[in-house]
């Protein structure tokens, strides 16, 4: 038994059809939302593979990369494209975050008994969740990750069922403006990094000023206590029969010296 994917080029004359033959069982298939790449999970249970194919006008689908021996049965593309999560929605819940530009595995992790995976509309964050629909254990809840696979927070909730990201409104930029921004992204990144550094500098300045104000308040409080302590000196001397106990070297007559000697018994054993 073999499996075929029939790809129809709807925007070309006479709608030509390309065929991709896979000689192994298919477990999952998913198009990249932005772009012309699709991914397939296929293979026997002992050797699951993930294949990425690219399409170009007037050309046959090209195999871009094949990842061997993967533990996954589902595919989740980022809404912005490029990034994809290879997930095993069975009990072990293994996760693999892949950059489809050069097929770099950015991170591998797991979320035990994961049942749902949802990308946020911007493609910057992804949520993995374990719902009561699948599991009755105490590990219900959702985890938030970056698109690179770095965990941000773990949130455990009893009787957790489902969640959904708030839809993102459409952009007000025209396609030409979006292309211009992508083209000059490095220039904009430098501007944003400069603003971030200014914010950090301002935050450091605020922290220094806050600490200086706290130190000034403490010094004023300390000076007030010293003033009261000095004013009460005569009263302390009167209560202590003119003995100035505030000074460490003021009274040496009440000191006693005690010498303790320890006798040590030594025994020597002489063997003939």
Explained architecture:
Residues 3-162 form the Translation initiation factor beta propellor-like domain. Pfam families: eIF2A. The chain is an alpha+beta fold. It has a domain at 3-168: Methylamine Dehydrogenase, Chain H, CATH 2.130.10.10. It has helices at residues 175-183, 185-231, 233-239; strands spanning 3-8, 17-22, 26-31, 37-42, 49-54, 62-67, 74-77, 83-87, 94-99, 104-110, 116-119, 125-130, 141-146, 151-156. Strands 3-4-5-6 form a 4-stranded antiparallel beta sheet, with no helix packed on it. Strands 7-8-9-10 form a 4-stranded antiparallel beta sheet, with no helix packed on it. It has a 4-stranded antiparallel beta sheet with strand order 11-12-13-14, with no helix packed on it. The N and C termini lie far apart (98 Å).
Q: Strand content of the residues, in percent?
A: 25-35%
Main sheet properties = 4 strands, antiparallel
CATH superfamily of the domain at 3-168: YVTN repeat-like/Quinoprotein amine dehydrogenase
Count helical runs: 3
Coarse structural class: alpha+beta
| Terminal residue distance | 98 Å
Question: What is the typical, i.e. mean, pLDDT?
Answer: 85
Helical coverage, percent range: 10-25%
Using the 3D structure, state the CATH architecture of the domain at 3-168. 7 Propeller
Query: What is the CATH class designation of the domain at 3-168?
Result: Mainly Beta
Which of globular, elongated, flat, extended, rod-shaped describes the shape?
Answer: elongated
Number of extended strands: 14
Q: If strands are numbered along the chain, what order do they take across the biggest sheet?
A: 3-4-5-6
Radius of gyration: 36 Å
């Amino acid at each position: 038994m073999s499996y075929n994917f029939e790809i129809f080029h709807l925007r070309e004359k006479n709608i030509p059809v390309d065929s991709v033959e896979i000689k192994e069982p298919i477990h999952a298939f998913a198009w990249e939302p932005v772009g012309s790449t699709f991914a397939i999970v296929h293979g026997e249970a002992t050797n699951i593979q993930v294949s990425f194919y690219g399409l170009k006008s007037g050309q046959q689908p090209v195999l871009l990369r094949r990842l061997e021996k993967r533990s996954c049965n589902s595919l989740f593309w980022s809404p912005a494209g490029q990034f994809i999560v290879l997930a095993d929605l069975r009990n072990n819940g293994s996760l693999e975050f892949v950059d489809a530009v050069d097929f770099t595995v950015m991170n591998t992790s797991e979320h035990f008994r994961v049942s749902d995976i949802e990308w946020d509309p911007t493609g910057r964050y992804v949520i993995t969740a374990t719902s009561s629909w699948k599991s009755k254990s105490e590990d219900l809840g959702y985890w938030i990750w970056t698109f690179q696979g770095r965990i941000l927070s773990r949130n455990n909730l009893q009787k957790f069922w489902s969640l959904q990201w708030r839809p993102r409104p459409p952009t007000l930029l025209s396609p030409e403006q979006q292309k211009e921004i992508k083209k000059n992204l490095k220039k904009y990144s430098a501007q944003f990094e400069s603003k971030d550094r200014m914010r950090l500098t301002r935050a450091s300045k605020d922290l220094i000023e806050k600490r200086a104000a706290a130190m000034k308040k403490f010094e004023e409080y300390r000076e007030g206590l010293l003033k009261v302590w000095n004013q009460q000196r005569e009263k302390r001397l009167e209560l202590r029969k003119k003995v100035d106990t505030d000074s460490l070297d003021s009274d040496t007559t009440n000191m006693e010296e005690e010498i303790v000697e320890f006798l040590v018994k030594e025994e020597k054993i002489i063997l003939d």
